[in-house]
Amino acid sequence: MNKYGFGPCLDCLYRTSPDQLGGRSGAITLEAAEEVIDEYVEEDVELERVEKFDSNEPYYIPRRGDEL
Protein backbone atom coordinates (compact mmCIF):
# COMPACT_ATOMS: atom_id res chain seq x y z
CA MET A 1 0.00 0.00 0.00
CA ASN A 2 1.33 3.42 -0.84
CA LYS A 3 1.29 6.51 1.37
CA TYR A 4 -2.05 7.63 -0.11
CA GLY A 5 -3.84 4.42 0.86
CA PHE A 6 -3.95 2.81 -2.59
CA GLY A 7 -2.66 -0.68 -2.78
CA PRO A 8 -1.21 -2.96 -3.64
CA CYS A 9 0.93 -0.91 -6.03
CA LEU A 10 3.35 -1.99 -8.74
CA ASP A 11 6.37 -0.20 -10.14
CA CYS A 12 6.04 0.05 -13.89
CA LEU A 13 7.78 1.30 -17.02
CA TYR A 14 5.55 2.75 -19.72
CA ARG A 15 5.71 4.54 -23.05
CA THR A 16 3.49 7.44 -24.05
CA SER A 17 3.98 6.68 -27.76
CA PRO A 18 4.69 3.41 -29.59
CA ASP A 19 7.71 5.11 -31.23
CA GLN A 20 9.23 6.26 -27.94
CA LEU A 21 12.54 4.67 -27.03
CA GLY A 22 12.97 3.75 -23.39
CA GLY A 23 10.11 4.89 -21.26
CA ARG A 24 8.93 6.60 -18.15
CA SER A 25 8.61 4.97 -14.76
CA GLY A 26 6.00 5.23 -12.09
CA ALA A 27 3.62 3.18 -9.99
CA ILE A 28 0.09 1.95 -10.60
CA THR A 29 -2.35 -0.09 -8.56
CA LEU A 30 -2.66 -3.82 -9.14
CA GLU A 31 -6.20 -3.29 -10.39
CA ALA A 32 -5.05 -0.74 -12.99
CA ALA A 33 -2.23 -3.07 -14.10
CA GLU A 34 -4.70 -5.92 -14.64
CA GLU A 35 -6.97 -3.62 -16.67
CA VAL A 36 -4.06 -2.54 -18.89
CA ILE A 37 -3.04 -6.17 -19.46
CA ASP A 38 -6.60 -7.14 -20.38
CA GLU A 39 -6.96 -4.22 -22.79
CA TYR A 40 -3.58 -4.19 -24.55
CA VAL A 41 -2.09 -7.70 -24.35
CA GLU A 42 -3.57 -10.23 -26.74
CA GLU A 43 -2.17 -13.28 -24.93
CA ASP A 44 -3.64 -14.75 -21.74
CA VAL A 45 -1.50 -13.10 -19.03
CA GLU A 46 -2.03 -13.12 -15.27
CA LEU A 47 -0.07 -11.41 -12.50
CA GLU A 48 1.21 -14.00 -10.01
CA ARG A 49 1.79 -12.81 -6.44
CA VAL A 50 5.21 -13.77 -5.05
CA GLU A 51 6.83 -12.74 -1.76
CA LYS A 52 10.26 -11.12 -1.79
CA PHE A 53 12.90 -12.99 0.14
CA ASP A 54 14.27 -10.07 2.15
CA SER A 55 11.17 -8.44 3.67
CA ASN A 56 8.22 -10.69 2.79
CA GLU A 57 6.93 -7.85 0.63
CA PRO A 58 4.61 -9.07 -2.14
CA TYR A 59 5.44 -8.41 -5.78
CA TYR A 60 3.81 -9.59 -8.98
CA ILE A 61 5.27 -11.52 -11.91
CA PRO A 62 3.49 -11.63 -15.26
CA ARG A 63 2.80 -15.22 -16.39
CA ARG A 64 1.52 -16.27 -19.81
CA GLY A 65 -1.39 -18.68 -20.17
CA ASP A 66 0.81 -21.72 -20.81
CA GLU A 67 2.87 -20.97 -17.66
CA LEU A 68 -0.15 -20.71 -15.32
Description:
- The longest helix has 11 residues.
- The protein is an alpha+beta fold.
- The chain is globular, with a radius of gyration of 13 Å.
- The model has no long low-confidence stretch (mean pLDDT 81).
- It is built from 1 helix and 4 strands.
- The chain has a two-stranded antiparallel sheet.
- It has one domain.
Strand order of the largest sheet: 1-2
End-to-end Cα distance: 26 Å
Whole-number tally of structural domains: 1
Q: List low-confidence stretches.
A: none
Strand content: 35-45%
Mean pLDDT across every amino acid position? 81
Biggest β-sheet, characterized?
2 strands, antiparallel
Number of helices: 1
Estimate the helix proportion, in percent.
Answer: 10-25%
What's the number of extended β-strand segments? 4
Q: What string gives the helices and strands in order? A: EEHEE
Shape type: globular
Q: Please compute the radius of gyration using only Cα atoms.
A: 13 Å
- Structural class by SSE content: alpha+beta
Which SSEs are present, and which pair or pack?
Blueprint: E1 9-14, E2 24-29, H1 30-40, E3 45-51, E4 58-64
Antiparallel strand pairs: 1-2, 3-4
Keyphrases for this structure?
68 residues; alpha+beta; two-stranded antiparallel sheet; 1 helix; 4 strands
Describe this structure in a few short sentences:
The chain contains 1 helix and 4 strands, in the order E-E-H-E-E. The protein is of the alpha+beta class. The protein has one domain.
